[in-house]
Design a protein that fits this description.
single chain, about 475 residues, alpha/beta, 8-stranded mixed β-sheet, two-stranded antiparallel ribbon, 18 helices
């Protein structure tokens, strides 16, 4: 008689990891479907409630118009809405006027120094350096520098590993202590020999043709002082926040910066990928490294500050849609709001600095573009508190009307980013624009007011090592 036996074969570690990964992906997909579904339920419900409550909205507006304060606020809101509508149409026009500059020949390409500052980046810095070294750029014209800014993890180890692979093609430095990204870049600027400096964050990967596309405008346009790269999200395969941010980044870069570039006035060259003319950098380097705000050394917003100082010199600042970098973004709410606080504080500071020169004769030719962009950004900052107070008043007096009208507005206004992303990339992923708008409206509305109130505070806020358990 044959015995029926069952063999208990233990799963291999590799098989166990694969199973866990599949479970994780399935869970992430299920959560994504839930969030996306909830988004549509909320907005469709809001549209229906807005229809039901339309008479209440009319009554609310009539109530506001009976008081002096209410009338003043309504006229202000109508004026701002009209300005924003005209501004948006103008930006659309400038977007369609934009054309990326094609790569020049190898002979025409300038010598380039790529600077990669790193802090607590771990193995990612290795991938970044290898990615840059594999660029389709003449090796004899490319200098690659990387600076470890006193990391507390194994970043320096991975930089040395990259050095073993790349040899003389990369030069690595180690700061004696953590001094901040600005000081890491400062060392790179002083060490580099290139006619053009390219700065790349140590958590970013570039395409093979990114560098040559990024620096070609310096050859074509002698007035070009800086170039912004096109930033996409690297870690957008699983976590939901990166998926949302990828749609937001496409809108911010490929739409907004394309229009700004048509005005020769991109306001911020991103730290993840930017290029600067050497002479423009050294014209303001001392001022940049010693920059202060309210008596405190500036340790944030180094990219916006450099862009601002180069614009002030009269140079054009452009955007290259065909120069891609893929960067990691926060996957948790805590990291996201800290990143936005840092950006918000930088915007407040640099708008103040921009106000000191933007209405002077700071460059040849038309100055309409930077002035218009400055006014638009200033309005957004200045009106953050009035609209915050109005929002709380609206919530306290008409909570259901506030919720329905706000969600319905998101449905209307976010449709443009959805269509834009769908046209440029992926229809299915484009719907994350709706989820992101809801998150931003209800979960990040406080960022700008808080950034204004704490603009003097220092600190990077992110990239610190997690506490050991």
């Amino acid at each position: 008689m044959k015995q029926n036996t069952t063999l208990n074969i233990p799963a291999s570690p590799k098989r166990g990891l694969v199973h866990k990964f599949k479970v994780f992906i399935e869970t992430a997909n299920a959560w994504g479907i839930f969030v996306m579904g909830s988004t549509f339920v909320l907005m469709i419900g809001a549209a229906y409630m807005s229809y039901i409550l339309r008479s209440d909205l009319t009554e609310f507006n009539l109530e506001r118009s009976t008081s002096y304060f209410g009338q003043a606020f309504m006229y202000l809101a109508i004026g701002l809405f009209a300005f924003k509508a005209v501004f948006f149409l103008f930006i659309i026009y400038k977007y369609f006027r934009y054309k990326a500059i094609k790569s020049v020949t190898n002979e025409e390409l300038p010598t380039v120094t790529v600077i990669v500052p790193a802090y607590n980046e771990g193995k990612q810095v290795y991938d970044t350096l290898i990615s840059l070294a594999e660029s389709d750029f003449p090796h004899e014209k490319l200098e690659l520098l990387s600076i470890d800014d006193g990391s507390k993890d194994d970043t320096w180890h991975w930089m040395k590993e990259a050095k073993k692979v790349l040899g003389d093609r990369v030069t690595i430095f180690q700061q004696p202590k953590n001094m901040g990204k600005r000081h890491g870049l400062y060392r790179g600027f002083n060490e580099g020999k290139g006619e053009v400096f390219v700065t790349v964050d140590s958590d970013s990967i570039v395409d093979k043709d990114t560098l040559r596309n990024l620096v070609s405008p310096f050859v074509v346009n002698e007035n070009c002082g800086a170039v912004a790269g096109n930033i996409r999200v690297l870690n957008n395969k699983k976590a939901l926040l990166p998926k949302m941010l990828d749609v937001s980044f496409v809108m911010s870069f490929e739409f907004v910066r394309s229009a700004e570039s048509s005005l020769n006035s991109v306001l911020c060259t991103p730290g993840a990928l930017a290029a600067y003319r050497r002479t423009a950098v050294f014209n303001c380097l001392d001022q940049w490294i010693n920059q202060t705000f309210m008596g405190q050394p500036s340790d944030i917003g180094e990219d916006r500050a450099m862009t601002n100082m180069i614009l002030k010199q009269g140079y054009h600042v452009l955007f290259q849609r065909n120069a891609f970098a893929y960067t990691n973004v926060p996957e948790q709410y805590t990291g996201l709001y800290k990143m936005f606080i840092r950006w918000g504080r930088s915007n407040v500071r640099e708008n103040i600095e921009m106000s000191k020169y933007v209405f002077t004769n700071f460059r040849k030719g038309s100055k309409f573009g930077p002035r218009l962009l400055f006014i638009s950004q200033s309005i957004k900052i200045l009106m953050s508190y009035p609209f915050l107070f109005f929002m709380f008043f609206f919530i306290l007096t008409h909570p259901l009307l506030f919720l329905s009208s706000t969600l319905f507005s998101i449905l209307i206004l976010s449709t443009f980013p959805v269509l834009f992303y769908a046209k440029r990339y992926n229809f299915k992923e484009s719907f994350w624009a709706y989820s992101y708008s809801i998150l931003f409206t209800f979960g990040l509305f406080w960022i700008t007011p808080y950034a204004i109130a704490t603009a003097n505070k220092r600190g990077w806020l992110t990239r610190e090592l997690p506490a050991k358990k």
